[in-house]
Amino acid sequence: MDSAFQMRIDPSAFPHFERARLNRLLTEAAEFPLVVVCAGAGYGKTCAVSDFVSQYNLPVAWIQFSDRDNLISRAWENFVQAFEQVDEQVAQDFRESGFPDTENRQNQFYRMHDRGLRKQQYIVVLDDVHFVKDNTVIDFVERIIYHMPNSRKTVIFISREPPQIKLAGLQTRGLVADIREEDLNFTENELTQYLSLQCLSVEAHILHEIFQDTKGWAFAVNYIVQSLKKSPNYSGYVRSAMRKNFFQLMEAEVFNAASGRLQHFLACLSLVDHLSADLVDLLAGEDKSLPAELMRLSAFVRFDSYINAYMIHHLFLDFLRTKQDILTEEEKQRTYQIAAHWCGRNNFKIDALAYYEKIADFESIVSVFFDLPLQVPHDIALYAASIFDRAPSDAFVRVRAFAGTHVRIIMCLGKLREALSLMVRYEAELLRLPEDEKWRNHNLGGLYYAWGSMRQLMCTIDDSYDFHIYYAKMGECLTKSPAIPSKLNSYSVGPWFSLVGSAREGAPLEYIDALACAVEHASSNYNGCMAGMDDLARGEFKFYQGDVRAAEPFIVKGLARARASGQFELVHRALFYMIRIAVSQGDFAKGEGALKDTEALLDEADFLIRFPTYEITLGAYYIHISHPEMVPSWLKEKFSPYGHPKFIENSANQVKAHYCYATKNYVPLLAYMEEQKRRESTLYGRVELGAMEACVLFKTKVKAGALAALRESYETALPNDILMPFIWLGKDMRTLAAAAQREPNFGVPKSWLEMIERKSGTHAKRHSQFISGYKRAHGIDGEVTLSGRETEVLRDMYHGLSRSEIAANLNLSSNTVKLFINSIYDKLNARNIADVIRIAVERKLV
User: Fold this and answer.
1) Model confidence pLDDT, tens digit, residues 141-173
2) Which of 235, 296, 410, 445 is positioned for an S-S bond with 477, CB 3.0–4.6 A?
3) Helices (DSSP H) in 639-702: which residue ranges?
4) Is 413 helix (H, G, I), strand (E, B) or coil?
5) Do 786 and 824 meet the contact criterion of CB atoms below 8 Å apart?
6) Contact assessment for residue 514 and residue 467, using Cβ atoms and an 8 Å cutoff
């Protein structure tokens, strides 16, 4: 069937443009001992190779393979005859010695070859190698190929599929050039050039249509060019004529010649978008001969060994889709089911959902979401929402977890009001069912879990902390439901454990109290879900109040509870706080230990978002040690579009903000801050960005704006004694707080500013100690550079002068001397004057 189709393709019809193009590719590959040209029918491979070799004044041994060459005697005679074109005497010697089927004959063959052709440069072309299937013939070709690189020869393979000859050894040594099908397709720009050479002018959108229809296939392009010369209207005439003629050709020469089994198999393959070898084998079932029979359609089907998948020409696929009516409903259902299972196992979630919907398997559709993080990726949630909307009206009754999953998807799209409306409807309908209805209580429990989660999200906006009520309802329903092992064993958390948005006094503690109740019900009904989160929220609150010593025990306790229950996302976030605590304490060893524990989470396969969360922590860590250049590249890019503060995108945006601050890239940072002011935000996040904005504006000489931002952040932080966002900014906030104290009627108590100046200065020293610990641990040169004035102040300190004496000696103000002394402390990583003198002497600074 393949040869018949090939006969319908006139080699002389191939455009000279395309043959010249392949000729250029061959010229570039000529320096390699072996060149493999692999593409389906209709690419002009043989013509182009013939053009290429004819331009060299070299003898060519052109071996044209066919099915008959799977007989070793026929293949040997073919080989010998081809070598007559190189050297008749050597070919005669080969013929007389016979096929080299023993080791002695092989050695004799090599000696004859080297004796007669050692100084002869020539080319060997093995055409249609895809016909070679016999192991003896394959072994013979391999021995020839592996002998060739030591001689003055170029070997060219022409094949419609990757040859079965083992080439890995030559490839690893860089001795093989591959020219593949995608290299031979016209690009859109080349298509424009070719049409121009043919004196054809088409509009840009028509050109794009031609490219999309042909995918650059030279045979189709040439057909269209010839047709356009007769009829200039592509869309109305030529396009439909092309498809009609190609489809007729495919049906007559390929499809009708295939067995009935293969016809049905091809139609089944046209139902799915993935043609992995594993999936094709599954679809073939017990008929193991089908994949091999499929490969005999090499005009339109090839196997790509690099990706372990079959590639079917797009026009042939379009043709096969017109044949799907030969399939029974049972064949279609089986194909979709196998494809769906395969896609689910291989993380093609959207495709799995699509195939499951085709067979109305909503149990499996819901099960897909058991293996996804609670925060469903936006593209999957968007696709799934329409599937749930199209589901039968009774699906929420007969399918376990249908209602809760539907609500969860809508919540992940940020449509909280729509989710609330959906929950109210589902609750009413489920409550009307009899108590003994199979999935009634289980589905109600899942619905209330989603409801509690949504109320948690909404407390950022409405300052209402009633979400624990719904978790309690969930527990009540699930205790009435048959015990079912739950896969809901993780809990999604964003940058903060607390989702409080209000600055109202006591709001954070109200949230934590509600959270403790919610954790009790969730962890007891869902395999420890949320375990430790209440302790972690208490530790977080103490941390943001600036009480690191009180925060650490809560974080450590919550970390242990979360780890024991497999709550990996909570563990990750707890370790993130342990790193921040270590920075605040200047304890590099503790911080490095927490980072290593975070890295260990990469081995937890059930932690579905372990890779992005690890990189988020790693990015923050590199900023802590003053190496922002080492931050993962995606965290250096633009801020992600707004999502709820709990979403992981917000965690990434927090790191991006600190990266911009560390690298002084203030324009996008200020734009992001302005955007966030128009959105709902958590209390902690709002104060952090406000304090950072104040420092950015002060550093960019916008003093009035800086003071206004500082005052606003102070007013937001004051009711709940939040201090850490100011302290964390170290010497930048120390400088700003000192400047604010000199402002009359500023509106912020001087005592508060003095405290912030002092605590931020202390934090700067601890941060410097943390960085020094990193440098010592990694053998990084800790050379210190002092300015001229700092050196003068250090010298006076070494000689025992007081601050006022130094000021008088250097004709400076006392406050200016204080700034220089603080800078010296930071640069030397010193805790007190004794440290300063010791380090200065050790480093020979005085």
Assistant:
1) 888 777 654 556 788 888 877 777 787 777 777
2) 445
3) 648-662, 666-677, 683-699
4) coil
5) yes
6) yes
